[in-house]
């Protein structure tokens, strides 16, 4: 078991390093493509930031760098060595795979995975999207790493580390702050027992048992609420602490907040990307822009809140995955790196696969969309025979496919809840 | 919604879904047939539209054209001098031409290229405007058929002189004399955008002139417009050229249609133009190159005008040919902005009729969907659909897929170094026959065969989808020529001889190399036979035309997988837990 995990990780690392060696220019090509690189995740601007930092120049004054000061400080220790940087990114990516395997191990008894648990790591590492994201050196993978650590520690009831990692993730991408709520819901009720993702807190579902051990349960639930609250407070505190550290690193200057968090929230650099935002703000009267940006942000928050609250007692782990998917779909600067992490989490839905109604359509749609997206960008920017409408149309198709995947899983979760957590794929509950 | 719900309920009541699922191969064939029917419907009344000028500023033929009697003698004078050029080395030709160009104040320069020879070009700076944009008049010394372009060169220099006396130009005028319309012109365009010192801003449009005769008179005009890699010039440019030509009283022929059929306008004449156009777009860059192909990829709208001669009926004089260029230049000169967007996707049915993208795209989309459905069918319509994702067969199929892509890529690359088309074709024939020859000496597990086909069809479906807007003709062509692949059946020990022979036939028909060979043998006498493979390589080397790579990397790997899948299979017993999950 241990050996095969190691083999999978080594294979992933070897694949990444080999790809970098065989195609040395691939990194720059990918960094230029809008699918893998956005102003806030691109490695080019990260390198610019490191250069400025190393030469004691003001990092955020030029309006080019939008990476967190801590990330710049950490990456500056590699001193520009290409190989070390590739190795570092490769290791980060394999750590994500390792975390996925650990999380699956945690659920091993409840998810009937059929395949060995290292398969999920293999799926992640050999997913072309995660491979290319890793090679493009997008800073998205730090976000993914921290989220995966946070999930792992939260499941293992290590509140402090879980909160620190979610704060780190938020430091890379501010929208990860929203995950505090769904992550707090996956903190297990019992310190000892593991639970199933399809019906985690059985007490809330099975009302008979609830009556019998009412007192006992109430006690447990309050304890649980207490630990959730503790987690949230820890997370916010460590986020504040990280900002303070960043402040010190950034020569006691607050301008990094504007360049990183505010830039992400307000999408102030209008740049074509896979997301749904940029097209709206190409030609809009200035006076409307703040309103729509607020609404778009509210849109992200509201669905994350509702999904996690709705499923908080029955399937909190799944609602967390859906929240990650939702943020990927609606944030202003998404990349394929975000979606590759979401895809890496999809195998956890194994028990619900039987409920899916049109997996073929949504996966084919997704495949075609990510394939056509660079082509439509090419005929817009390079050939000049298309225009921005072409590219945005394919963005919409891509968004539709991701939304289809999310709604399908949402439906599957509701069905599973209806079946009281033990899947019964044959039962028909709706006419359509 | 109520209607949808009713329909949905009826569909469920009749049990249509499982029935359709069982007959997916038929659905796939049905879709392909729909694709062809949709395509054949395009020349019908109501499916196509009259061309129109989208950009009002162009105003073709609105101003009087002055390149007439007053220029005759100048033109003839130059032509008499040029008549002796074929016997001169290109260096001397260019020297004389440089002197002439400089006489009326054109800045000239010669671009040296060791491989393709020298290219002389001159820039006449715009008297009005800021000189950031340019129009190109390109004259290859030798045309696509290797004839000396006497009339074209005379027109080129006479027109330059004529243009230089006018103060109306708001765009720079660049006149280019290259050795040929192929590599030489392309290398100049390439150099213009990368290394040349004397430049005149971004090139908006280019007109290539081909008048391979010293005759004063010609009969009608052929216009070539297909760029490489599926690019087309903006329809506005083609429209103004056609409108001006017809305004000057000449007939326009597209895709080399003979003179007799130019006046026809019925379903079959339109269909003929459509089919010829699709074939020309498919083989653009591979067929003899007329010059406009050289400008593809730099956002330059380019067309080639070619004067055609008939033995008895040449009643238009050479200055009318010059007037086409003059009036087109004046039209483009009027442009204040770029050419209109979204006017780049069209099929031409007749000089004045076109089909726009929304009408023709569905016919290629159906092929992509048909392949996707075949892929789905070979995944679910057998007893192995419930195997887990990580079963050895899936992994093996994935591995074979990766190997076949890598192999195909190397085939494509190696062919650039050693072009051995006979080997490719023989290899293809061998691989088509091999599964049949192997018989039961070598077998593969049955699920592997289904998985291989599933991956192969999904891959080719993705390839077709991605080609849709890039190169419609190529997508449509690969869809039709490769469709026989979906008919290849998985062979078990019980399969009859007939099925096996059919499989071999289908494989032979859908193989990229043999079917391209067959296609050009039937439809294009210019480049049939082994020659086409050399042309593929040549077009990649000189023009950067991707067709060879698309055929090798997009079409060959799925074909190899399908070929492997038709090796005789042995049934695999499934362990009882696999059957549990319902799809």
UniProtKB/TrEMBL annotation, chain A:
Single Gene Ontology BP annotation: attachment of GPI anchor to protein
Signal peptide from the UniProt entry: 1-20
Any one GO cellular component localisation term in the record: GPI-anchor transamidase complex
Localisation per UniProt entry: Endoplasmic reticulum membrane
The keyword Iron is assigned to this record: no
Transmembrane segments: 87-107, 119-139, 159-187, 229-249, 276-305, 363-380, 392-414
PANTHER family assigned: GPI TRANSAMIDASE COMPONENT PIG-U (PTHR13121), PHOSPHATIDYLINOSITOL GLYCAN ANCHOR BIOSYNTHESIS CLASS U PROTEIN (PTHR13121:SF0)
Protein name: GPI transamidase component GAB1
Species this chain originates from: Henningerozyma blattae (strain ATCC 34711 / CBS 6284 / DSM 70876 / NBRC 10599 / NRRL Y-10934 / UCD 77-7)
Automatic annotation (TrEMBL), chain B:
Transmembrane regions: 24-42, 343-373, 393-411, 423-444, 456-484, 505-523, 546-564
One Pfam assignment: Gaa1
UniProt xrefs under InterPro entries: Gaa1
GO CC annotations, alphabetized: GPI-anchor transamidase complex
Keyword terms: Membrane, Transmembrane, Transmembrane helix
Species assigned in the record: Henningerozyma blattae (strain ATCC 34711 / CBS 6284 / DSM 70876 / NBRC 10599 / NRRL Y-10934 / UCD 77-7)
Entry keyword Nuclease: no
Name used for this protein in its record: GPI transamidase component GAA1
GO biological process, one term: attachment of GPI anchor to protein
Coiled coil: none
